[in-house]
Each structure stands twice: as C-alpha cells, then as structure tokens.
Amino acid sequence: ESQQKVTxxxxxxxxxHPSYKNCWRTDVMMVTPWLAxxxxxxxxxxxxxxxxxxxxxxRIGLTVFAIKKYTVFLKIFIETAEKYFMVGHxxxxxxxxxxxxxxPSFSLGEGRTLNVIEVTSYKRWQDVTxxxxxxxxxxxxxxxxxxxxxxxxxxxxxxxxxHHGVEMLSDVFAAIHPGFFQAxxxxxxxxxxxxxxxxxxxxxxxxxxxxxxxxxxxxxxYKVANFCHHAMMADKAKNMEALWHDESxxxxxxxxxxxxxxxxxxxxxxxxxxxxxxxxxxxxxxxxKDFEKIRSx
Length: 297
Ligand code: 2GW
Ligand code: MN
Fold this sequence. Notes:
Blueprint lengths: L37 E2 L6 H10 L3 E8 L7 H11 L5 E8 L14 E7 L6 H23 L2 E5 L3 E3 L11 E5 L32 E9 H20 L8 H11 L4 E3 L20 E3 L4 H5 L2
Parallel strand pairs: 1-9, 2-3, 2-5, 3-4, 7-9
Antiparallel strand pairs: 5-8, 6-10, 7-8
Bound molecules: 5-phenyl-uridine-5'-alpha-d-galactosyl-diphosphate and manganese (II) ion.
C-alpha cells in the first residue's frame, strides 16, 4: 500500500457557527470515508446535542453481563456509570447474570433503573462471552424494543472515567480498539480463514473494532447481535471458532454493514497503551484483573 501523506486542513471556509472552534480537530481523523463521524474530545457541542435528545425524550439501555466470578466487577461499573454515563437522560441498566443473589443494590439517579435478568452460564469462557450475542438479540425482540430507543452493549470489567453522553448515539455505532487506532490494515487481528463466518480478506477491513462496546437503535443492535450469533453457530457446526470470538464476528458484520458513527479510543481505553497525545481524555478504562483468579471456576 502506498503511504499517503495526510495534509492538515485549515478550517476557515464556511466555519460560521459561533462554537465551531471547539468542534473541530485537525490532528485526528474526524470522519470515515463513508462519512460517519468519529467522536473525539473537541469534536462536538454537548449542549446542542443534549437539547436535541431531551426534546425526543430518548431512553437508553445499557446491557452488561456478569456471569460467575465477573459479578465482582459490577459495583465499580454501575457506580462509575452513575457519574458519567448519559447523565440527565433516561437510562435502563440490564444486568445479565447467573448469580442474581450476588448483585448488590445500587442507589441510582433520577430516571434511572436497573433490571437484573437471570441467565444460565456456559462451561467454556468462549461461550460465556460469545453467547452474549444470542441473549442480546433475543432480548431486543422480547423486551428492549418496548423499553428503550438506543442500546449500548458493554463488557463489565470496565470503569467509566469521563463523560459518555448522547454524542455517542447513532443508528449503529462501534468503538475503535485502543490497540489498533494507529495500526495499518495488515496488523488488524481479523479472522483470516476463508472458511470462517468471521473471515475478512487481507485487503479489506476499515478499522479494528473492539468487542467490548457497541450499540445503536434497538432494531440495529438486533441485526448486529443476530448476525454474530448465527455466524458463531455456523462456525461451531464446523467445529470452528473465530480468532477473537465475538469480536471477530462483530468486525465482519461492520465491514459490510458499516457503522454510522465511530467512537474514538477515548471511549474504550486501556492504560496498557499508555497516554498518546491524541487521547486527551480517557473516558472508559479496562479494569485490571487477576486473570488466574477471576477466570478459574
Ligand atoms: C471468563 C473466563 C475467561 C474469559 C471471560 C470470562 C467471563 C466473561 C466470565 O466468566 N463471566 C463473564 O460475565 N464474562 C463476560 O464476558 C463479561 O461481561 C466480560 O466483560 C465479557 C468478556 O470477557 P472479558 O472481559 O474477560 O474478555 P476481554 O476483556 O479479553 O474481552 C475482549 O475479547 C472478548 C472475546 O475474547 C470479547 O470480544 C470482549 O468483548 C472483548 O472486550
Ligand atoms: Mn473485558
């Protein structure tokens, strides 16, 4: 691939909006080639967006799975979500767990509710993480469609550390994996076996998206989750599993059904990747986990 020299645009033409200065950056890509915005700090005016979403009375669901020992992550997840996630909007948490008795009670802000939904666990951890897609898709039809407008689907071993507001929302959105936002296409860890339903050819792939945070309108999330679940089942029938499990199938989906908005790695940071200058704010962090302890049965 030829190295393209990116020239920094100087935005002066047509920049009439009084607050445009706080809504444009020239050091990072702010829009995909298919014209989906990439959300970075300094790319939006939250007051304008909040007014728009309040006008529509938008309801937002946040799904999270806490199966087996992963229930320990829930406290910090919910407590930090109360501080940073969609503050001032209507929020429904959906906690899927096999241990409802281990879910503590939380004091929630106004307009926010938490629903605990019991699900069965799976023996293999790969199935625990992958089956989330099946459960999400089923609940889209059964429940979410009646209760919320947008859904955000997250890993539980995370903590909110900065604003996550309605700027994220769009028909269907994905987050750029923090380990790959500066990587070239050939470095993306997509599934490369053509026999797999997660297959992405070497010369395709737009970004490497993380499996730990995605969302959109309920009907769009249904399509994402339903595709991923069926792709997994088709592979399973052939005794296959994509390299990064649900994340691989998610990347495959987004290659051919492109997200309408992308979240910059600010929205899913991992301190393992340090502090690059582009990342002005780390809004969401992977919590360190003792792998041995937390992943043993
Ligand atoms: C247990 C053993 C090994 C791996 C996962 C689990 C496990 C996961 C579990 O016992 N209980 C549980 O509730 N989970 C859920 O699955 C939980 O919500 C957790 O956040 C999610 C994904 O597992 P996690 O966070 O351990 O995997 P990561 O952080 O390495 O996740 C990335 O890769 C995964 C696929 O391998 C997924 O795509 C995930 O979305 C990615 O962030
Ligand atoms: Mn995780």
